Amino acid sequence: MAHPPLTLARATELLRTRQASSVELTKQCLARVHAAEPNLGAFLSITEEHALKQARAADERIARGDNVGPLTGVPYAVKDCLNTVGLRTTCASKILRDYVSPYDATVIRKLNAAGAVMVGKLNMDEFGMGSSCENSGYFPCKNPWDHGRVPGGSSGGSGAAVAADLVPYTLGEDTGGSIRMPAAFCGVVGLKSTYGRVSRNGLLALSSSFDSIGPMAWTVEDVAQVTRVIAGRDPLDSTSLDAPVPDYAAQFTGADLKGVRLGMPKEYFTEGMQPGVAKALLAAIDNLKGLGATVQDVSLPHTKYAMPVYYTVQFAEASANLARYDGVRFRTAAEADDLLNLYLRTRADGFGPEVKRRILLGTYVLSVGHYDAYYLKAQQVRELMRQDFDKAFESCDALITPVAPTTAFKFGEKSADPLAMYLSDIYVTAVNPSGVPGLSVPCGFADGLPVGMQLIGPRLGEPTLFRIGHAYQQSTDWHLRRPNSETTA
Amino acid sequence: MTATDFEPVIGLEIHAELQTRSKMFCGCPVLDPLVSEPNVAVCPVCVGLPGALPVANRRAVELGISVGLALNCQIRDFLAFARKNYFYPDLPKGYQISQHEYPIAFNGHIDVPGPTGRVRIRRAHLEEDTAKLVHASDGTTLVDFNRSSVPLFEIVTEPDIHSAEGAMAYASAVRDVLRYLGANSGDMEKGVLRLEANVSVRERGTTDLNTRTEIKNLNSFSSLGRGIELEVQRQIALILSGGKVRQATMGWEQAENDRDRVKLVEQRIKENADDYRYFPEPDLRPVPVSREWVARLRLELPELPTARADRFRTAFGLSAADAELLTADRALGDYFEAVVRGVSTPKVAANWMLGEFMRLLNEGGGELSSVKVTADALAELIREVEQGNVTPSSAKSVLADMFASGERAPAVIARRGLTTLRGADALTPVAEKIVTDNPAQVAQYFAGKENVFQWLVGQIMKATKGQADAQQTRTTLQAVLEARRPK
Fold first, then answer.
1. pLDDT of A213-266, one tens digit each?
2. Could you tell me the residue range of the domain that residue B408 belongs to?
3. What is the pLDDT of residues A364-411, one digit of tens each?
4. Cβ of B51 and A205 within 8 Å?
5. What domains does chain A contain, in order, with CATH numbers?
6. Count helices and strands in chain A by DSSP H and E runs
7. ipTM of this model?
8. Do B95 and A323 touch (CB under 8 A)?
9. Do strands B105-112 and B74-75 pair parallel, antiparallel, or not at all (unpaired)?
10. Cβ contacts of A239 on chain B, cutoff 8 Å
11. For residue A321, what is the enclosing H or E element?
């Protein structure tokens, strides 16, 4: 490793002790971004000027000692589904190629207020529709551990940018695994927050009842720090939760997990898992036991319905959420002699194939004659899934499961078969319909590629997930291993 | 069968803007469409920008509940919205946030004055208005988002109305309720109240619900009445000639041979029901509507126009027609009640209000709030008349003066010297002069032509500019004439 990893904690420390200025750190990150791009494909836009301006302001703030927090002056990058004033927000879709939002997402406003420095907008599957980042409307993002493999999706850029040590942390968005999957494939920590914990205002919606914003970073501690800043009730988001945001780090207990009850849902430990993944996971469970946690078997009997429920509702909500991209306001088809053709051409031209597929399926499941059999049924089963979790959390504090059945797969391996691609989300999709939080933590390697474990907590159970994840990272070093330049050539 | 064997079956939908300060799902102001520049009340939410989220307007929900209560509806114990999906340039999100399965109010009714009687309300729900399309002369279409997401309350009846007049009476009664609650100004010309009629016909004596057509864009009560009449005639003629009514949306069209005449034509044939792919709005999760909240809103309901009209009839002895006129507008009713408190006979106050007062009010633009005459001042004027201090005919001109100057009645009467002439002292000289000046008429009177007496009274009135007390004028004239009667 050419340099010690620039975690958030280290960046904060460098700034606090005046070993580096925000401008220096920002230039350093920008230099790494420029060195990695465009080869890596993590960044859709590099906001250099904006970043340096924020960095200079942060340095002044630090010099004044004016409300300096852990994020003040530290560079980060954000998935391109979050609105940023004056900078392009594309959701990796051609339909928003030149879209500039007149307002900031609430999380961006909070990060701005905290003095954070945004260096760019990150690649993703178009509108979050994908598990590999291959569905970006612009270019795919590669996995820093192996450029022949996908970084996971849809927040592929957010995972790759941290894994490649380009920025200390990123923001992602998780609708059905979109943070946890790339976190596992890239060997970083990623939080899918409790639904409503983080405001969705200014987040370009994929599936409104699933979408959850969360940070990705090297350590659980860093993820907890960022979560603390971006979480909280927002009057602009009626679904945001009115619950106080705790100081997560204050609840850490070092490497001690005495009294913590972990559940292993039997439906998640079945055939089909890559052996190296299963092995890493079981070793991680042993490690957690060694830290004092108890582990018991639990059952989430409706797990087998998670995929159909998730995709049915997601397609339905997405079909409505994407209706606004009609060419009237954001991007007009060059030639259209009537309204219908304006709609048809704009959307035919602007959306990629996966987006079109999901809009069609979503329109179908909401149609008269199909609504009851699909959408309504899915919502009913969704309630049962929620009850499964509620019941499991009566006897345990958190669940431990794999994140993905395999390590990062190769480009093209699944992109020809949508169903195979959907199945890579098998362990992560149940979390979103139930609104509970999920934390992906690196827990080893299989054939040289990172493996992640998923910790699932009850609604607003982030403190427990962070405590467990932090304790685990106190006794392991998987999260500090980075891809080296030889393997990434 | 002939045309008279048929009976119309009509259901109405009223779309009323709820005139809150801000829009249904964002903080943008609700503007007067007649005076505002386009696209000045817009934000990411009501323009449907990516990432913007709706937040329900509590005041709009309260108004919806209040209107529902006033229409005797049940109020649902939770508030839930749904997305109604369709593409149109006036609908920026590609869906309208509305209520579908769970309207906030349902199963109500209103008792319409007159022959229409009780009309059942099937449901009333909250939704957001669309933007407004402006078609420019060069063929382009512009979108004005000021109206986008303004709160709307859609009130849907059962098919309980059986005439155009009934539909108009119902619509007018609902408008009065909306205005009483301060929910809607009722200004049809501003488009804040829009009507749609569902019309079918059936053989009298049957209870069939036959294929209906829908008449949209009815922007006045008269177009509502006219539209229903035309559509009923069209359907009857169609059936009598062996045709069948098709489910369709009807639109207005100018007759080819007469530019002043309009007719209804089938605008859009509906083969099957529209598929709006309704589903629960995930951005606004259902919230409970507490019984306490509803109970408080019920307590705050003002006395409604029909109840008030009943009270005016029984307590004040007014005719049904007068009572209805005086209660259609809440402020006018309040004004009337204040006048009544200052006079001895409510009926007299009603006559003043509906006569001279209304005439002057309408002449001045019809805005009660800009009238300078307070209810107390009008009552004072009526008392002056009742006490004989000013004659009724003078009082009319006194009121006109009060409207213009804002002065109180005694001041106007004194300034203009309009105090009634009473008593022999004041009237005898006038009578003497009239009798002296008109010897020929006096001679006729003495010759037995009695109606000349009335002419002479008129001359006295004229000479006193109507200020003479009528009864005393007669007595005095009688005395003067008798003194001169030839022996």
1. 999 999 999 999 999 999 999 999 999 999 999 999 998 989 999 999 999 999
2. 303-415
3. 999 999 999 999 999 999 999 999 999 999 999 999 999 999 999 999
4. yes
5. 8-263+394-480 (3.90.1300.10), 304-379 (no CATH)
6. 15, 11
7. 0.95
8. yes
9. antiparallel
10. 53, 282-285
11. helix A306-321
